Amino acid sequence: MSHVVWLDGAFVAPDAVALPITDPGVRWGDGLFATMRARDRRVPLLDHHLARLGASVVALGLEQAPAGAEVREAVAAVLAHLDPGVHRIRVTVTERPTLMVEATPYQPDPRPGVTVASLTGMWFPGEELREHKSLSYAGHRLAHRRARAAGADHALLLDDAGRLGESDAATVFVVRAGTVLTPPVEGILGGVTRDVMLEAARAESVPVEVRHLPGADWRACDEMFLTNGLAGVTPVLAIDGLPVGGGVPGPLTVRLSTAFAEVSGWASEHPG
Fold first, then answer.
1. Torsions phi, psi of 116, nearest 5?
2. Residues 14-57: pLDDT tens digits?
3. CATH number (domain holding residue 225)
4. 133 and 28 within one domain
């Protein structure tokens, strides 16, 4: 089946899915979600995604939100109904309590990389809510629309000083002089794929620094790439219309894409 939805213990036809207006996720955007990739009815990083979801449920005090074994069982039920191939799995939980698992076919972007536009004042290092995958996602969606209006694929979210935070839908890594740099988890999502990439870089003996990145660091980078739980590793080819490196996936990005695939247990969609 190409589009499968599990809602509160039962399968529901996608065009019949509905939540009441009293659901906290509908009324206030108060809830959490997780997005992950399945290949041939298996989610290789499922344990990592469920651990982060459970930690966010506790951190935000969502005492009635489903987590743990209940979510795992719902994901397993959905996976069993899928055709072979690659699918996007989205888990949504709220304190109603609502548990929704949706699966749709996923077609990786065939392009070698993407372009980004920088947006100052869109990252707030002290905002702890952004360290969780909350349903309150309007800020990221606004950033995405502004980036598209500027002719780019994605946004880079910067604080008022121009320091790099994250993208509108991914963690950002930059490469300078053979060292991989990425911002600390302060007002940005500590992504599952971010953690796996850091592990992959260390396994490859690639130097890693987790620190704040002012404009002088990230604008002058040799390479830049994005990571998330669906696309894996995506090279950035241009920032604000200016090419990164030679405007093609950089050698360390390509190398780390392969290493990421080995550590994560699933093939990279952007090998360069």
1. -135, 155
2. 999 999 999 999 999 999 999 999 999 999 999 999 999 999 99
3. 3.20.10.10
4. no
Query: How do 154-158 and 114-119 pair as beta strands?
Result: parallel
- Do residues 118 and 195 share a domain? yes
- The pTM assigned to this predicted structure is 0.93
Summarize pLDDT for 119-139 with one digit per residue, the tens: 999 999 989 999 999 999 999
**Domain-ending residue, one of 40, 71, 105:** 105
- If one counts every other C-beta atom within 10 angstroms of the C-beta of residue 42, the result is 12
pLDDT at 262: 87
Q: What is the mean pLDDT of the chain?
A: 94
User: What whole-number distance in Å separates Cα of residue 76 and Cα of residue 219?
Assistant: 43
In 86-191, which ranges are continuous DSSP H helix? 138-149
For residue 1, name the pLDDT band (cuts at 50, 70, 90): low
Q: CA 148, 91, 129, 135 torsion: positive or negative? A: positive
95 and 207 part of one domain? no
Q: How large is the angle between the packed helices 192-203 and 46-59, nearest 10 degrees?
A: 130
> Contacts by 13-16 with C-beta closer than 8 Å and gap 24+?
14/102
CB hemisphere CA count around 260 (13 angstroms):
27
Nearest to residue 108, comparing CAs of 209, 210, 234? 234
In a domain, 94, yes or no: yes
Domain span at 45: 4-105
Residues β-bridged to residue 39: 86
- Written as one string, the DSSP assignment of 190-217 is --HHHHHHHHHHHHTT--EEES---HHH
267 neighbors 85 (Cβ within 8 angstroms):
no
Q: How many Å apart are CA 206 and CA 200, to the nearest integer? A: 9
Which CATH number do you get for residue 48? 3.30.470.10
Pairing mode, if any, of strands 4-7 and 10-11?
A: antiparallel
